[in-house]
Amino acid sequence: MTHSDAPHLVLVDGSGFIFRAFHALPPMTSPDGVPVNAVYGFTNMLARMLREHVGTHLAVIFDAGRHTFRSDIYPQYKAHRPEPPEDLRPQFSLIRDATRAFNVASVELAGWEADDLIASYARAVRKVGGTCTIVSSDKDLMQLIGPGVCMLDPMKQTPISLPEVEKKFGVLPEKVVDVQALMGDPTDNVPGVPGIGPKTASALINEFGTLEAVLAAAPDMKKSKRRDMLIEHADAARISRQLVELACDVPLPVPIADLAVREMDKLTLADWLESMGFRSVLTRLGVGHPSGAHAHRAARAAAHASISGAVAEAPTTTPDQDDLTKATLAAPYGAYETVRTAQDLQKWVSAAQEASVCAVDTETDGLDPLSANMVGLSLATAPGKACYVPLRHEGTLEEPAGEQLSVQAALDIIRPLLTDDTTLKVFQNAKFDLLVFDHAGLDYTTITAVDDTMLMSYAQSAGLHGQGMDELSTRHLGHTPISYDTVTGTGRNRIPFAQVPVKRATDYAAEDADVTLRLWHVLRPTLRTNKALALYEQIERPLSPVLAGMEKAGIAVDRAELGHLSKDFETRMAVMEKEIHAAAGRDFNVASPRQLGEILFDEMGLPGGKRGKAGAWGTDSSVLQDLADQGHELPEKVLAWRQLAKLKSTYTDALLRQTTTEDRVHTSFQMAITTTGRLSSNDPNLQNIPIRTEEGSRIRQTFIAPKGKKLISADYSQIELRLLAAVANIPALREAFELKQDIHARTASEVFGVPLEGMDSLTRRRAKAINFGIIYGISAFGLARQLGIPAGEARSYIDAYFARYPEIRDYMERMREEARAQGYVLTPFGRRCYVPGIQEKSAVRRQYAERQAINAPLQGGAADIIKRAMVRLPHALAEGGFSARMLLQVHDELLFEADEAEAEAVAQLVKTVMESAADLSVPLVVETGIGNNWAEAH
């Protein structure tokens, strides 16, 4: 046989996929009323595989029955698995019908599992020089991967090869059975050795080589519980190995030659698809009957095909919405299960793993995930199928909490699910739940295969609407979830979630998981259609665990210095209050806007006052700034007092309250708030510390490096101007950046006709104000106020600027037009930034929206770039062998903590990674600094 004649055998794990499809998809029925959700999932998978992954030979492998040789070895094998659900049983034969309709061979053999048949066919095809692709995500089949044999995950459409196996099991495929024998498998009731998890099992096999070698070495190991377990359960481990090792010598029911790919009979397939009511599949494959004898059958199918329940028409529903999304919307809410025992929770975990995708949610006794206790958790395995696991409910005499698992017991059972690479876990705001699990004792870095519906939505609709679960549910599912206030009460009557009766908590918490999974079904496909898939998968999703690590790490603060600074601010404010009272002519409460307004506009008669709806004078910062610009002393002094008061309350006092026992402050990063993709932070908000004031610098001095450490600041230089030069394609500015010239001096030279040599600081300052002002759509009036010049002169500067750089005016007009036409603008990396006010009738609001449209691609592009760098940096630091960790992100700056001895090398590595985060037509430049505190490093 020549190489070109060698068969490529594709084996579909039909039995494995049936259960995954059934648990993953909402209820659906055929025109005859038979359940078909698993059939529908199998049909779509098979159709896609035939289109995208065709070999020379093909078969779908099924289980013939539950009793196999493994049941004789160990009667408890899979014994705890319940009988198939009533609405799944009729689908087994229909799935075999589907295989025949596609003219694909199906194979099964009594007494053997599908996995054994797959192993035997894979071995046989390799013997004749062929190759084999196994379409499955079943971890048990990973032991077969090797030369000529690979796997393909049918749900994610991603290959599974040696690196994926090693990542999951910590060993290469030939050692997988030894690792599985030690760790066991609760899903199949394989006993293993109690207390031996994946990491320990792989470490032992890597150290000793084989299971038998581990068991032989156990008596000589250091005395420990692990040693005792290995000795006591050695026989169980050996039995476990027999259970997990696949048989490769099963007699082949159908010769490989008879599995050659066959031509599809379109009429037969069309008949079958019509009988099932799978109209979307029929259309997608283009196999429908054009006219004639079968037309009435298609019409009947269209008229009578039904999906269980009434379809809720969400705002985003369209006539083209496919069957699956309709079923997702239609599945009924409620009737959720309360899980109180380990056995019942294990059933849900097994169902989730069989479905290959599930939603997970946690309930806590607080809003800070670093300190909140887990009160319960919920799982959803399909739309309408969800449960709640109470863990810390207190109950009352009238409504006792009843039996509950301990947190540790629940984590032990759910850990294999959360750490399973082959099962996708869907969260709404995953970062919060990851940290909740971490605080409860399950290391968040071990939780793999995570999707986040909040970030899915944000990646394609930033600025269009909020990203909270309730709002997304109303918008996409047409369903208003039970509110937290309904469950816990409001105001003084609010009770902690731990005191909520378990039945009511189940209705609320399980629905959260159910809604999250439904949102995933709706939002995941739109990532591709809205061209947001790369943004989500390469930036937003991987950033979530990075930020979780930063929040957990926190940053050290100098409590003593904070106390001194707070006292100093208080003393200075007292002096300023006396000066304010003197300017006002009497004492009053400076913090009272009402009293201040009465003095400014009633007593002093200053111009420009406006009363609010309640009748009080407005005294916000814009009002006071206008009066100060006119030369009035009192509003100027009040503005200075307010700035100091804000710094004291927001930072020096708040930081003292928020400091943990380790003298570290842990901010929380908000990922889905801004229109442009920028991160924001709160508790404390570190984005608003003044950069160029003495007070701001003193606050930054209180953020310190612990003994033996250094802080490293890495800041993108003029990144938004660089993006402007790139996206507006301005040759002069691009050249200036390429030549590393002073961009503001170059601008001043070109706009005002002044030589670069000997440039005076005033002219450069004016050019700098225009450069940065243009990005934010500055007006002549705004520039005039900033530079202290007449508005006419400011207008002449802006006109001269546009005359020299007409590309900027073109760019600005292009962004306005895009926003008006689409409702959004795009960053250079494809992020949609919606501008809702672009069609406003009010000129003031419309012009504000236009300025947003101009700035969003630049600010959003900068956000995309620093996020790309943040995703890459933890891996780069680990690869470099550094223990340094990233602590903060503020605007265009990242802050790191590193060992003093490696600080210089870390700074260089960070600079390299950040500067290579994007490929633009102008160079990215990062400035780094090293110091004992933030101000010194910056």
From TrEMBL:
> MF terms per GO, please?
3'-5' exonuclease activity; 5'-3' exonuclease activity; DNA binding; DNA-directed DNA polymerase activity
Q: Which SMART domains match?
A: 35EXOc, 53EXOc, HhH2, POLAc
Q: Which GO terms describe its biological process?
A: DNA-templated DNA replication; double-strand break repair
Residue limits of the 5'-3' exonuclease domain? 6-262
PROSITE patterns in alphabetical order: DNA_POLYMERASE_A (PS00447)
- Establish whether keyword S-adenosyl-L-methionine is in the entry: no
Q: Where is the DNA-directed DNA polymerase family A palm domain?
A: 696-902
Which residues are in the 3'-5' exonuclease domain? 336-528
Q: Which reaction does it catalyse?
A: DNA(n) + a 2'-deoxyribonucleoside 5'-triphosphate = DNA(n+1) + diphosphate
Which is one Pfam family of this protein?
A: DNA_pol_A
Keywords (A to Z) from UniProt: DNA damage, DNA repair, DNA replication, DNA-binding, DNA-directed DNA polymerase, Exonuclease, Hydrolase, Nuclease, Nucleotidyltransferase, Transferase
InterPro entries for the chain: 3'-5'_exonuclease_dom (IPR002562), 5-3_exonucl_a-hlix_arch_N (IPR020046), 5-3_exonuclease (IPR002421), 5-3_exonuclease_C_sf (IPR036279), DNA-dir_DNA_pol_A_CS (IPR019760), DNA-dir_DNA_pol_A_palm_dom (IPR001098), DNA/RNA_pol_sf (IPR043502), DNA_polI_H3TH (IPR020045)
EC code: 2.7.7.7
Q: How does it assemble?
A: Single-chain monomer with multiple functions.
Q: Which family does it belong to?
A: Belongs to the DNA polymerase type-A family.
The protein's role, per its UniProt record: In addition to polymerase activity, this DNA polymerase exhibits 3'-5' and 5'-3' exonuclease activity.
Write the protein's name: DNA polymerase I
What organism does the record attribute this protein to?
A: Acetobacter cibinongensis
